[in-house]
Amino acid sequence: MTPRGTFRLGLVVLVAALAVYPAVGTGYGVRAVLQIFMWIALAASWNLISGLTGYVSFGHVAFFGAGAYTGAILITRAGWSWPTAALAGGLAACVVALVIGYPCLRLKGPYFAIAMLGLNEVLRALVSYFEGLTGGGNGISLPTLEATVPVYYAMGLAAAAVTLLTYLVITSRFGLRLMTIREDEVAAEAMGIDTARHKLYAFLLSAAGPGIVGALAARDQGYIEPISVFPLATTITMIVMVLFGGKGTVWGPVLGAVVLFVSQELVWARFPYLHQLLFGSIIVAVVLLMPRGVLGVLQQRYHLPRTI
Amino acid sequence: MLGQVVVSGILAGALYAMVALGLALIFGVMRVINIAHGPLLMLGAYTTFFIYQALGLNPYLTVPITMLVLFILGALLQRTLVYRVVDAPELSSLLLTFGISIALVNLAQLAFTSNLRTVEYVTGSYTLGPLAFSKSRLIAFVVAAALAGLVFLFLQRTRLGKAIRATSQSREVAMVCGVDVQRIHRITFGIAAALAGAGGALVSVIVAIQPEMGQIWTFKSFLVIVLGGAGNYPGALLGGVLLGLVEQLASLFLTTQLSEAVAYILLVLILLVRPTGLLGGRQT
Fold first, then answer.
1. From the list A55, A114, A122, which residue is nearest B222 (CB)?
2. What is the pTM assigned to this prediction?
3. What domains are there in chain B, each with its CATH number?
4. Can you tell me the distance from the alpha carbon of A213 to that of A217, in angstroms, rounded to the nearest whole number?
5. Is B132 helix (H, G, I), strand (E, B) or coil?
6. Any CB–CB contact under 8 A between B94 and chain A?
């Protein structure tokens, strides 16, 4: 069997195993895998804008929070079912991305990164301010959910969808153009690429996933408040996962999400006070010593295809 | 009421401008946006707090000490970490300084705890007719304006200042003329950190100190630079005053809570309408 065939077979087996897992797994196990799905979707989404175009988003959790609030409001006030509310959450995140991305991504340089730096704080302030709609600091309680398993499948679907999307983008002309922008934006323009528009499309794609996942997470947790859905720590975790796994790759964010989540559960949960220090150090170390991440190093050493 | 808002806005403006000047210097010379600029301000505030607490020294007299401490810290950061990403793509320098920023905040939480600390030194205000000038803010205004002026003079008049400006214009040509570019980078980062530290020292007398106080300052400093036009040092002063005014107006008509959101919307609008800054991005 060719390596590619083995890889595909392994993937099918893995998906099948994850699909039957809720039937055999413990409650804790199902919840942990659900969380891993969530992190895969978040990390892979960050990778779509920052890994492919090189434009760093320091506020991606803003889309997660926007999705969570949209979903929670639609479920509690309009009586929507949670799957449709989740899709609406994705749409709302795209609208936020459009408003921020249109002015900032027309420009080259650090404007976008800095604009994203404050976005989660601003959305948090707005959500706290418009108490009538959002409940302000009291947050929103959702009606009790009968089972976690449907959300497990929805989250798994979201993770698979964003990963598949990444694969499709990386193997397309659109993806090549994004990577051209990352390597040399002026050259990309000289070749006739409408860089502003391509960056904006990539940004919209990268906002949809966190929006959907945010609404799903709100449904799963049953309660949201401004502090819980806009933490900078979530953005930091996404960034660390992608950098560790390998930015600009299909499987890097997946690898990073699994490895970091598992080690977080096993080891770092005992040292909560050192968490951010550790993540900050990982970012510094990866940027300086291993800028392509684990997968990037493997690609280079074993001549793996770019689409890994 | 409106007069009061204008006064408070201008008083805050000089402080914003001085802190932003540090960020602008690093960006001008190295093309690096230092995300850790705000956390350096936080460290400056703690330095002043601990000197004040241990020695009972007038917090304004600690400004030179704090600046020296932060200068050394900044030069060290440049020497050990940042120098490696000066020529790298923007992504690397942004992520690296972001990592440093998170690590610094967490270190501060570990070392100093998250308790609020205050330096209670000058309280109350001077009144002039209907206007009130908070004492601590007035002193901060004077010191910040003086320091910003000094740095400006230093850049214009001294040999070292000229070397810094030459490096920012063209590193290769500066190198050919015998400028030790690596040393200039360290000094620039040191000066920028010292300015952030001075900002922290002045802020420590005005608001409570805690490890997460700094991050918003990175954003505000950048906003000041954008308002004034990147690479335009007098523009930074205008940008600082404008940001101060907008924030004061927002807290007058809306709530203090929303003043950050208003500053943010201002940034997005400026980038939409006039991305080269209000003064048109003329180089000085």
1. A114
2. 0.91
3. 2-273 (1.10.3470)
4. 6
5. strand
6. yes
* pLDDT confidence tier of residue A157, bands split at 50, 70 and 90: very high
Half-sphere exposure (Cβ direction) of A57: Cα atoms closer than 13 Å: 36
The closest alpha carbon to B217, from B207, B269, B86, B253, belongs to: B207
In this complex, do A113 and B216 lie within 8 Å of one another by their Cβ atoms? no
State the Cα–Cα distance between residues B262 and A117, nearest whole angstrom: 15
Of B95, B254, B260, the CB nearest to A287: B95
Q: Is the residue at A272 inside a domain?
A: no
Under an 8 A CB cutoff, do A280 and B101 touch? Answer: yes
Interface test with B, best of A114, A128, A185 (most B CBs within 10 A): A114
Residues 213-242 of B with CB under 8 A from A: 215-216, 218-219, 222, 226
pLDDT digits (tens, 9 = 90+) for B80-92: 999 999 988 888 9
CB contact at 8 A, A70 and A262: no
* Whole-number Cα distances in Å, A70 to A122, A140, A262: 16, 11, 30
Taking CA atoms, B79 is separated from A252, B73, B76, B107, in Å, by 31, 10, 5, 20
The interface predicted TM-score of the complex, written ipTM, equals 0.89
Answer whether A122 sits within 8 Å of B257, measured CB to CB: no
- Point out the residue among B100, B265, B268 whose CB comes nearest to the CB of A284: B100
Contact B31, B188 (CB under 8 A): no
Q: Is the pLDDT of residue B279 over 70?
A: no
List, for residues A38-47, the tens digit of each pLDDT value: 999 999 999 9
Neighbour count for residue B261 (Cβ, 10 Å):
21
pLDDT score for B82:
93
Checking A106-109 for CB contacts under 8 A at 24+ apart, the result is A106/A196, A106/B271, A106/B275, A107/B271, A107/B275, A108/A185, A109/B90
Residue A260 lies in a domain: no
pLDDT at B8 over 90: no
Closest CB from B33, B98, B257 relative to A129 = B257
Compute the distance between CA of residue B40 and CA of residue B61 in angstroms, rounded to an integer: 19
Reduced to 3 states, what is the DSSP secondary structure of residue B87?
Answer: coil
CA distances, A301 to each of A295, A298, A307, B116 (Å):
10, 5, 15, 50
The shortest C-alpha distance from B128 to chain A (Å) reads 35
Residue span of the structural domain in which A99 resides: 28-232
Q: How far apart are CA B172 and CA B186, in angstroms?
A: 17
Q: Which residue among A113, A122, A280 places its CB closest to the CB of B261?
A: A122
Q: Please tell me which residue of chain B has the smallest CA distance to A127.
A: B258
B110: nearest CA partner in chain A: A273
- Taking a contact as any Cβ pair under 8 Å apart, which residues of chain B between 60 and 89 contact chain A? 81, 84-85, 89
* Number of independent structural domains in chain A: 1
Residue A167's Cβ-count burial label (10 Å; 0-12, 13-18, 19+) is middle
Contact A211, A89 (CB under 8 A): yes
Judge whether A158 lies within some domain. yes
Task: Tell whether A41 is covered by a domain.
Answer: yes
